[in-house]
Amino acid sequence: MARANIHIALADASGVAPGVTFTTCLTRDIRIKADEEEKLKNVKEQNNNGQQQEQKEMENLANNPITPKEKKEGSIWNVNNYHWEEKCLTRWAKEELKNTLENLKIELSDKIFLQFFCSHVEGEASSSIRKKKKILIYDLKINSEWKAIKKNKNEQIEMEAKGHLCVNEIISDFIVDDENKYKYTFTFDNNSSEYTDMNFVIKSEIPSKMNSIIDAFISKMRDK
Q1: Residue 16 region by backbone torsions, left for phi larger than 0, else alpha for psi between -120 and 50, else beta
Q2: Residue 179 belongs to what domain range?
Q3: Is the pLDDT of residue 218 over 90?
Q4: Residue 113: beta bridge partners?
Q5: What's the angle, vertex CA 100, arms to CA 99 and CA 106, rounded to 5?
Q6: Predicted pLDDT of residue 193
Q7: Looking at the structure, do residues 92 and 45 belong to the same domain, yes or no?
Q8: Which helix (H) or strand (E) holds 120?
Q9: What is the pLDDT of residues 34-58, one digit of tens each?
Q10: How many domains does the chain have?
C-alpha cells in the first residue's frame, strides 16, 4: 500500500497524469525533437540550394563573358551586366524627340508639306538591366504646333494652314506592330470649306508618318 502511494505522488509531481509512464513521455519528447530537427534540416537545404543556384549563375556568367558582338549596357562595375542597374532617360528622351520633330519636313500627298514647331514633350523614360536583360520603360506625350503649305504645279505656295497636334499613349506597354498604339488629336486653325481637303490629308496621313518617326526614336532610345 505504501508503494502505491509513492508511485502516485511521483507521477503527480512530474506533471504526468496518473497511469502514464515516464517511458511514454520520453518517447513523445524524442519524436517532437526529431521533427524539429528535420524541419531545420529542410530549411538549411533550401537555403543551400538557393545559394548554389546563385553561385552557378555567377560562374556561368564568368565563364561566358561578353563577346565583341555583345554591347556593354551597364556601368564598368557591373560585370557581364549581371546586377540590377537603372538609367534615367527622361531628359534625353524629351530633348531628342523635340529636336527630331522640329527638324523634320514631312511630305504628304497633293504637294502638302508639314513642319512642327514649339514642341513640348511630357513624361518619363528609363532603362534597366538585370542578368543581361534590358528593360525599357517609357510614358510620353507630345504637344506641338504645326504649319503646312500646299504648293501648286509651279512649286508656288498655294495655301497655308496651321494647327496643333497632341500625341498620347506613347507607352512601353504597347506591342511595336500595333498600328493604333498612339492616339492623335488634331486641332485646325482653319476650318472653312476651302481647307477641307487639305485638313483631311493632314489628319489621315500624319498618324502613319508619325508612327514611323516615334518608332525610330524608341529604337534609338533602346540603344542608349
Answers
A1: beta
A2: 85-223
A3: yes
A4: 107, 149
A5: 130
A6: 95
A7: no
A8: strand 112-130
A9: 777 777 777 667 666 666 666 666 5
A10: 2
Q: Is residue 148 assigned to a domain?
A: yes
Helical pair 196-222 and 90-102, crossing angle rounded to 10 deg = 140
Question: Which residues lie below 8 Å from residue 40, measured CB to CB, with a gap of 6+?
Answer: none
Regarding whether 113 and 39 lie in a shared domain, the answer is: no
Cell numbers given for 34? 526529431
For residue 167 the three cell numbers come to 500625341
- Look up the CATH number of the domain holding residue 118: 3.15.10.20
**CA 196 from centroid of its chain's CA atoms:** 42
135-181 tens-digit pLDDT: 899 999 999 999 999 999 999 999 999 999 999 989 987 655 566 78
For residue 174, tell me if it sits in a domain.
yes
Tell me if 12 is assigned to some domain. no
Are residues 47 and 141 part of one domain?
no
Residues 224 and 214: their CA atoms lie apart, in Å, by 16
Q: Is the pTM of this model over 0.70?
A: no
Residues 110 and 33 in one domain: no
Q: Which residues contact 141 (CB under 8 A, 6 or more apart)?
A: 121, 122, 123, 166, 167, 168, 169, 170
131 and 208 together in one domain: yes
